Structure formats: C-alpha cells, structure tokens
Amino acid sequence: MSTAAAQDASPVYGLHRPRLTDARGSLHRTLEDPAPVWDQVLAGAGLTGTETGTDALLTLAHVMMARGGVVEQCGRALDIRMRAFLGLEEVRALIAAARV
User: Fold this and answer.
1) Residue 4: pLDDT over 70
2) What's the number of domains the chain is made of?
3) Taking residues 24-33, what's their average pLDDT?
C-alpha cells in the first residue's frame, strides 16, 4: 500500500482508518494516569507519536498487547480495527479492479 493510501482519511465501508490518536484516546478513557503509559508504549514501539503508517500502528498495538490488563485490551482493539480496515481496503480494491 502506498503512503498516500495509508494516510487517506476517507472511510472504507463506513470504517475510518485508526490513528495514533485513537490509541491514545483509548488509554485516556480507561486509565487514571495515561500519560506515563502512553510515553512507555510509544518508546517501546520506537515511535515519536507523529507516525501515520500502518506498520507504526500495528507495532504500537503489539507493544500495548504485551503490557497486559486494560492496556492489552486497548491494543487488541487497535489491532482488530486496523486489520479490519486493511481487509476492507483490499476488498474495495478488488471490487474496483473487477469493474474495470
């Protein structure tokens, strides 16, 4: 997938592409003090917090899942959303190609 496609903000079958802000928001909704956890998972994933690519999001999700507890659940949700979005993108591309 091209970088432009990875950053496309248009929904695919009604599903918006997950972003780092979604992951951060899930921690803010579920943790009393999310800031240090966010910093730790970003560092663990080798991210700065400004990345937009698929690999960065999936890496972050896996780092979050390795933490256990509610952070793991937030990471699983991010991973599921990202993989669902990618799958739907593929379906959309296949359908578009079949129409040509």
Assistant:
1) no
2) 1
3) 97
